[in-house]
Structure formats: structure tokens, C-alpha cells
Amino acid sequence: MSHPLYIAFIWHQHQPLYKSPGSGDSLSPSQQYRLPWVRLHGTKDYLDLVLLLERYPKLHQTVNLVPSLILQLEDYIAGTAFDPYLTASLTPDEQLTQQEREFIIQHFFDANHHTLIDPHPRYAQLYQQRQEKGQAWCLANWELPDYGDLLAWHNLAWIDPLFWDDPEIAAWLKQGRNFTLSDRQRIYSKQREILSRIIPQHRKMQEAGQLEVTTTPYTHPILPLLADTNSGRVAVPNMTLPEQRFQWAEDIPRHLRKAWNFYQERFGQIPRGLWPSEQSVSPAVLPYIINQGFKWICSDEAVLGWTLKHFFHRDGAGNVEQPELLYQPYRLQTAEGEVSIVFRDHRLSDLIGFTYSTMPAKQAAANLVGHLQAIAKKQRESQSEQPWLVTIALDGENCWEFYPQDGKPFLEALYQSLSDEPRLKLVTVSEFLEEFPATATIPGEQLHSGSWVDGSFTTWIGDRAKNRAWDYLTAAREMLASHPEATEENNPEAWEALYAAEGSDWFWWFGAGHSSNQDAIFDGLFREHLFGIYKALNEPVPPYLKQPVEVHEAQGNHSPQGFIHPVIDGKGDEQDWDKAGRIEIGGARGTMHNSSVIQRLWYGVDHLNFYLRLDFKSGAAPGQDLPAELNLLWFYPEKTMVNSPVPLADVPDAAPLNYLFHHLLEVNLLTQSIQFREAGDNHQWQPRFSRAQVALNNCLELAVPWADLQVPPDYPLRLILVLADEGRFCNSLPENALIPIEVP
Description:
By secondary structure, this protein is an alpha/beta fold. Helix content is 36%, strand content 18%. It contains 25 helices and 24 strands. Strands 16, 17, 18, 19, 22, 23 and 24 form a 7-stranded antiparallel sheet that branches. A hairpin with a 2-residue loop joins strand 22 and strand 23. Helix 1 packs across helix 10 (181-196) and helix 22 runs antiparallel to helix 24. The radius of gyration is 27 Å and the shape is globular. The two termini are 36 Å apart. Mean pLDDT is 93; it is low at 587-594.
């Protein structure tokens, strides 16, 4: 009998603890929150995801709800949580101080403007004023109704389109402007109403069998690093570690037990699945997971690859070769017993997370279903007796901000297609494991120590700032240990502060790798939680906790920090490029010294395209201050192929300009026309068709499809830019170097 292809979607819903420790007591129960994301994502992302699914009863899925997220939702529902954005929203317009007005102008556009601001004319009008005229102009010229409308729209725009047919919400959207304090109070009531439905809806759908709800260690810590920070060296042997080794494995069962009990109270049953924070696993954490009673966990294909010493190659269409290795559950065997583990398809998960938002909804859904049908075909061809399980696991909140209508058209198209396709069957992980228990086994000690990010822990440890944070945490943990009288029963404040500080999110934002305009707030919150430990123990707070862990300033050169999807219009939208790699050109010495017309180079990727942006000096014009011809030359390291030299006169005989290249995209900056060529025999160049996009306005923006370059996923390539005038070399960027690019 041939099996359908089983598919397990796991959506991970998580926010760090934004609650300031020490706020909220019997005298003043209100809780001070530093940031609004629990409240705003709560109205936009958690309820609608499962309500949409409920309309397609054949489709079963898994949702992971982190305890620290649920705790904060409950504070907002109770009306005891107040963040600075909410406080401003509920302040009468005429009572707004100068400082509050500055805060509103700076932060009440914290949203993806393409999807959350631009669709609403009044919100878009205010945003354009700030972008084009600047914050100082707004502060000098805005009147009270402008502030009132901005306060209302920041809250309204984060309400999911699924709820727009609610009569009150529909009336506000139609009203558009002249919002009063009373309107804003009603919007806040509506937010709490939506939040209050989240947990009951998940519980109801779990009891009906369409949903499985899983949990995560209490405050989302990286368990392997709690067991031993030296586990960072498993994937990166030369990693620089913190000065003090953190080894508090005894905290692992505490986080697991708290999550387990917390879940039981809210869902009336015990959890079966555990999403280890950041899909981070190691041999050391397995006994604790097994002893707590969890039946299955999930991790990433990179962890499986390291464990099996197998690299998952993909074909030109992006489908996994040797799929039978990835698309099955495994039993992890230890002396304490065993636990099942599933490994997600990293690429399919990333396509939803980072790329499908840029495609028309039906086309994106068809692309994903096409991948699944191709896997189902391979399964039939393999004539395997064992069914296959494709696990697609990703963040269930942040990606939708980039989709039109918060992903509703995409999910509707996807769910309809999956409901109509008999050979594809969506299941919860527990459902699958109950019917088809794992047969493949992995000895527990063989499991790789790593996470979903490159199979390593470098996102949370190894960088100078991250290591400093670990040293601060170690000192605070040792201080708590030196007070054996401070138990969880008689000093819960100290332990809650510890659990919060052990959360993964602070380390994510420290140092290299990730950055946001709220880095300083995350830094402060981490230190506040540590501060709370000392305070609860009546110990003096170390002076270093009063200083930031790192200096938060704009970075110069840096590599890409995530996928980007810029609109190619030559305007250089700041949000579109905020995760791009950046190379400062203007200040470099040599041919491109600080009088350079080109000031900055930006670059990045998604699953469809390579993107490039060049920022020019104000007023620079091609053909005058700037050479009229830009050449992109692609170099493929360690690949045997036909290559040709740079086809220009006067090219210096120096690396990397004297390398041979395989692809060439010529951009005429005067006409914005392109010519694409591929290296041919005898050092010639052959014309090829290209779908590259180019736009020149206040900057140059380019998108080059991977399909033009005919490169498979997980492929390294290098790029150099050469400026020319009438076929003669002028200069190159970056100077004496190639830009390293990884095809996702």
C-alpha cells in the first residue's frame, strides 16, 4: 500500500519577557512592559492563524506556545500590563509632553510600511511626512489631531484583517482620521478582547483533534548552553568562550517542569511535544527532557546533517537529495530512556518565512505545493514501506508582517490546495508518531550539539558582547547559589529574575549577527533581570550592571543579517535594506578615496534573487561625475567551468581583477538597460537572456534572479563591481576584494 506524503507544520509563537522585574505587587498590580510586541502580535498573529486553519478541517497542524508569551498575554488580558506605546495611546492629546511627542514620532511607525502602513491612507500620509520632511519638522508642525490619528493607527494597523469585518473595527477603518481618546480606549478594549480568545481557541481545537499545542522551556533558554557553555565548541572548535564557564544543568529540569505545569493548567492535559528553544539540542539535555515525560522534540536538518555526518544537497529545483534521511522521525536512545525527534526541512520553512511574501499569493502557494508533490513523487518512486513525514517548522508571527493582508490570501490559497490534494496529508506530529512510531535510531551521545542557525550556537555565544553577557549571568547565578536559603517557595522574585535572564533573546541581540532599533532596550532589560536577582537577595548590585553590555551605535561594514526583499524602484527604502550587508566606500583609501561619488554598497539575497544597491553622493549624475557603465562580474570559487577575463580595456593586472569570470551583467546607468553574458570558449562572452531588474533614482537598485546564474541552492559565489567609460576600466568595488555571497 502506498502512503500519502505526511506533512507536519509546526508554528512557533514566542516573545521574550518584556516585563520589567519588580513592577507589579499587591500595592500596585500594574506591570511595566518595555516593549509592546506581545500586545501587537497578539492582535495580529496568534488567533487568526488557528481561526483560518479551522475553516479547513481536513488539515491538522501543531502550534508551539512559549510559556513566557502566555504569561504576558494574561497580563494584558487582565488589564495590568502597560507598555510605553500603550500609555501614550491612552494619554489625552493635550497632555502629551514634548518627550512623549518625540517618542511617538520616532516609534509609532515601527511596522513594515509596505504592508501595515501604506494600505491605510491617513497612516501613510503621516509616515510620508516623517520620511520626507524629518522628525524635527513633524515636531514643529504637527497639531493635536495628527498625534491622535497616529496613536490610533499604530494600534489599528496591527489588528489582523481577519477581524476587519467586526462592526467597530470596520467603522474605525472607514473613519480614517480625527480619532479621539475615547476611540483609542475602545481600540485598546478590542485588543484585549482578541487576546482573551487566543488560549481558549487553541484549547478547543486541540480537544477537537485538529491542533496539537506544544511547549518550550519556561523562558526560552538555550538548554545546551545552560548545561555547559563549552558546548559552543562542538560546532566551532576555535570559538572564543566567556571567561567564566556556565554549567548549571540543574536549571534545565526547573525550566522544563515549570513549562509542563504551566501547560497543564491552561490546556487541561499534559504536553507531548517540546520545541527546544531555537531548536537547540545536545546529548546533555536529553535525559532531562525524557525524565520530564516529553514524547518528542524537533530540531533542524543542519543538526541531523552534523549528527549523521551527511550534508543535505539539493537539486536545481531546491529539493533534497536522499530525502528518506530527512523525512522520517528518529528515536534518540539514552540510558534514561528514549524520545522521538523530527527534523525540519530548512529550505521549505525558510521559503514561507522569508520569500513567499514577495510573490503573488496563489503563485507562492502553488510553489510550495509543487515542492511537496515532487517529494511525494520521490516517495512513490522509492517504493518505501515506511511513510515519509515532511516537517515544516518556523516562526509563526514575524514573517506575516511582510505578507499582504498578514498572509491571509497566501494561507487561504495554500490550505485550499492542500485540502484538494489527496496525496498530501497534514498531521500533528503526535498523530503521526502514534500511527508510525520512529524506527530509525540515533544513540543519544551521537546527537550533534547545535541549533537551527548553521547547526551551531554562534548566534548566542562566542562574540565579545555575548560572552560578556554570559559572564554577568554566571556571576549572578553563583550569587543565587551562595544563598541556599533562597528557595523558589520563599524567594520567587530571585528565581523568576534568573529564569528571565537565562532566556535566549538577550544573547541574540548582543554583538554581531542581529540588530534592531531596540538593541539598547534589550540590553537594559537583560541587566534589569540580573539586577532583580541581587535585589531579591539583598546583595549589592555590581557596578558593571549599571553600564550597557555594549555600545549601541550604527555599524559600518557588516555582512547580511537576514533575507531581504527590496522593491526595485531606486529609492533605497530604509526598511527594505535594513538586514542587507553593507560596505562603506566613501571613507576607504586608494582609488575610491573619500571624495568617491559612490558612498556605500548594500547587498543581500532571498530565495529568488541577489540584490545590490549603490548610494551616490547627493547630486551625482551618470556620465558626468559617475562613469556610465557598471559591470557585475561573477566568480565561482573551486568550480570547474568555462571562464573569461573582464572584457574592458586598461584593466589592472592585479587580483581579483585579473581573475577569470563566468557571468557578466552590464548596466548602462544612462539608459538603465542591461546586457547579460556568459563566458564562452576562447575567452569570449556569449549573450544570454536575463530577467534582472534595475532602477536608478536617488540610488541604484538591482535584482538578479538566481535562475539567470543557474546556480543550485547552498552554493558559494563571489562578485566584483567594475565601473567603466566607453569600454575602458575606471575603478572597481570593493577595492582589491570580492563580495562573498551564499545562495540560500
